[in-house]
Structures are given as structure tokens and as C-alpha cells.
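Action item from last week, closing it out:
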Amino acid sequence: ARPQSPPPYCDKQLYEVQASSPEHKALSRELATKSVVLLKNRGQILPLTPSIKRIALLGSACDAAHDLHQLFSSWDQGDYYVLGGSGRVVGVDAVSIRAGLHSHCS
């Protein structure tokens, strides 16, 4: 059999990465487990209403830009809303957490 070669304009190093090794799968499982956040609806705060006066948003992802020009410039680009790669789906109307909360609670 003829050896596979990367598609044109593909970063050969990325093309040859083995991302489904047992070690990568274990790391993915660990990261997914540690990143799960359970939300408790204490005091029946949810759903949010306009009467909410203050809410804390922490981290840069809360108001991250969704740069379509950058995402379409190369197949391996990503942001907080889209992972880079050949199987990605780019939503043209992504709304940041801050913008969504501002829209709903103003």
C-alpha cells in the first residue's frame, strides 16, 4: 500500500499527530470530568429575570470575540466557540455569555 501524504496546505506535523492514543483519551476524560460545573438553582434564581441587579462573570471567555475572518483564514483556527480542525462547524451568530446575559437581563 502506498503511504498516505497530507492534503495540500496541511501542516504535516498536525496531520501526523496520533490524537486517539490511550494517553490522549485518558487526558480528555480527566479534563472533561474536572471541567464539569453543576448549577444549583438555590432560591429559584433561574431563569434569570430583569430584577437581577448584579451577576459576576469570571474569565476571558465570558466576553470573547468570535472573529469569523480569522476562523475562515485557515482550517486549523479556533476560538472559544469553535475548535480548529477539518471537521469544525463555524456558527456565524455566536453570542458571548456577557452579551447574552446583557440582552436577556437589560
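Closing note: The chain has a mean pLDDT of 77.
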